[in-house]
Write a structure and sequence with these properties.
The protein is of the alpha/beta class. It has helices at residues 53-71, 91-100, 113-121, 163-180, 189-198, 203-212, 215-219, 222-227, 233-257, 273-282, 296-309; strands spanning 14-20, 24-31, 36-43, 78-83, 108-112, 128-132, 136-141, 147-151, 262-265, 289-291. It has a domain at 14-117 and 296-309: ATPase, nucleotide binding domain (Nucleotidyltransferase, domain 5, 2-Layer Sandwich), CATH 3.30.420. The chain is built from 11 helices and 10 strands.
Length: 312
């Protein structure tokens, strides 16, 4: 959904912030005073898609849709974009955004999506961000601006507690039970919800879903798991274990850099209260923890607006 400003002043200083994740890519436009004047969302994307022709075409199409919506509101003069999977070395992404927005490539700054999410919660050095989206990661930016991480290795390797991990755990448990007692899924509210999401109870449908869909689409299956948690102990257990996985990430940074406040954020972290509760229970009582609704695209837009204003 896109919200538009009351006044569209093409001469205004506008900064564009982008938060690109596997499930959704969110954007916001901010004015020189930091006020958000418009925002919206398009399909998810990952910098990792740039390794193939099909992936590059998909990323460009998503960027084109995003930029069309942005330019209907106003012309940004600077862009700050955080992208999942970004390794800091893909100039093609910056060139694509610059071309679509009629900007110079020097007006586009790219970083990992977790860096802008961190700055939405903390100033450098303050605390640890645990972010659960399609994947999962814990981050700390120290006072020298150095980025430290735990996790975030990708859904095929780990990313415990993220939406993809929850979806995979649900299907894994369902099919293990089917191995032992065929037809047992009919007594499981979670299995019913999951199979409704993938299109049916035949193994071929689960196989096609897990091995044929992108990671963002698979991650959205976690919604069905969360929706059945009140009626299915197995679903609740998966969500609680997801919270424990997220606690493990925070504890890894605590062990390396000492105790600091922890913020839990990300769309997957909002799936069910059991996740945050299990995470809190797995952390030391002395460690401050808070759950927040992250809006990193807003933080990125304000940073971009500040950069644009500085050009005057």
């Amino acid at each position: 959904m896109i919200s538009f400003p009351t006044v569209n002043n093409g001469a205004a200083v506008l900064g564009l912030g982008i938060d690109a994740g596997g499930t959704q890519t969110r954007w916001a436009l901010a004015g020189a005073d930091g006020a958000i004047v418009a925002d919206g969302a398009v399909d998810g994307l990952s910098a990792l898609q740039m390794s193939s022709d099909a992936g590059r075409a998909a990323v460009h199409a998503t960027f084109a849709q995003l930029c069309q919506a942005v330019l209907a509101v106003g012309q940004p003069r600077a862009v700050v974009a955080g992208l999942t999977g970004f390794g800091g070395d893909d100039v093609v992404l910056a060139q694509a955004l610059a071309g679509l927005l009629a900007l110079d490539v020097t007006d586009v700054r790219l970083c990992n999506d977790i860096e802008i999410a961190y700055r939405d919660s903390f100033a450098p050095g303050q605390g640890y961000l645990v972010y659960a989206g399609t994947g999962s990661i814990a981050a700390w930016i120290d006072t020298d601006g150095v980025f430290h991480r735990a996790g975030g290795r990708g859904v095929l390797l780990d990313d415990g507690g993220g939406g993809y991990w929850i979806a995979r755990e649900a299907l894994r448990q369902i099919w293990r039970r089917e191995d032992e007692a065929p037809g047992s899924w009919q007594a499981s509210p979670m299995a019913e919800a999951v199979f409704a999401h993938v299109g049916g109870s035949d193994w071929s449908l689960s196989r096609a879903f897990m091995y044929g869909q992108d990671r963002g689409t698979i991650g959205r299956l976690a919604l069905a798991v969360a929706a059945s948690a009140e009626n299915d102990p197995l679903a609740l257990d998966i969500l609680q274990r997801a919270g424990q996985e997220l606690a493990r990430l925070a504890l890894a940074l605590v062990a390396r850099h000492g105790p600091r406040p922890v913020v839990l954020a990300g769309r997957a972290a909002q799936l069910h209260p059991a996740m945050a509760a299990a995470m809190r229970a797995a952390l030391p009582v002395s460690l401050q923890m808070e759950q927040r609704i992250a809006r990193p695209h807003d933080a990125a837009a304000r940073q971009a607006a500040s950069l644009a204003a500085g050009k005057d």
